[in-house]
Amino acid sequence: MKLVFLGPPGAGKGTQASGVCQKFAIPHISTGDMLRAAIAKGTETGLKAKVFMDAGKLVPDEVLVQMVKERLSESDCVNGYLLDGFPRTVKQAEALDEISKPEKVVDVEVPDDKLLARLTGRRVCPACKGTFHITKLADEKVCPDCGGELIQRDDDKPATIQNRLNVYHSKTQPLIDYYKNAGTLCEIDGDQAPDKVFEAIEVALGG
Ligand code: AMP
């Protein structure tokens, strides 16, 4: 099962991807998480990526393509993968077709006004990677799953969010046509309760 999850930031890709990976026993490969781990480690890639990420811009294609190529060559990807946040440009999609062509592309769409509310209220737990919305938290600073300290991602600050949405519409949305033409696109309405979104994805992936 080789899967790609498309969709704007805040559409719930990460949450849905975790459930799908458990179900199909494939690794969840989030390029955003990989880049944040590289920043935390202080690697050369991390240092280079941070400037782009903090501005809400895309990290250059060459960096991402090399990173994903290496990751997909690891042994846990023999039965497939779920790529979350990659590809984000037509160039990356073409490179992925050369490395390992995806079988299905799940596009989770949510209108921009809803995304803004979701992203400004998003808090993440660096310890367990959980994602929460402030309206659902008893304490904005404490992870309800593991007790870790919740933080707001630097790129979830309002000034950066609009940039990220603009970048999605101009650079990533063209991939919808790219995968429509390839016959692999599954369009999912992400503007509904998370369990309903999951059901729709299961149906699209054939149960
Ligand atoms: P995400 O966690 O997927 O929202 O990614 C956070 C940030 O990491 C993005 O806003 C980009 O700056 C960078 N990033 C992640 N994946 C990619 C990609 N495939 N191409 C370029 N930049 C990326």
Fold topology:
Blueprint: E1 2-6, H1 13-24, E2 28-30, H2 31-41, H3 44-54, H4 61-72, E3 81-84, H5 90-99, E4 104-109, H6 112-120, E5 122-124, E6 131-133, H7 158-172, H8 174-182, E7 185-189, H9 194-204
Parallel strand pairs: 1-3, 1-4, 2-3, 4-7
Antiparallel strand pairs: 5-6
Helix pairs in contact: 1-9, 2-3, 4-5, 6-7
Bound molecules: adenosine monophosphate.
Adenosine monophosphate binds at residues 9, 31-32, 35, 52-53, 56-59, 64, 85-88, 92, 155, 164.
Which CATH class applies here? Alpha Beta
Task: Specify the biggest β-sheet.
Answer: 5 strands, parallel
How many DSSP helices?
9
Number of strands: 7
Uncertain ranges:
none
Secondary structure class reads alpha/beta
- List bound small molecules: adenosine monophosphate
The CATH architecture name reads 3-Layer(aba) Sandwich
Helix percentage: 40-55%
Largest beta sheet: strand ordering: 2-3-1-4-7
Order of helices and strands: EHEHHHEHEHEEHHEH
User: How many domains, as an integer?
Assistant: 1
- The CATH topology name reads Rossmann fold
CATH superfamily: P-loop containing nucleotide triphosphate hydrolases
Strand share of the residues? 5-15%
Shape category: globular
Gap between N and C termini: 13 Å
Radius of gyration: 16 Å
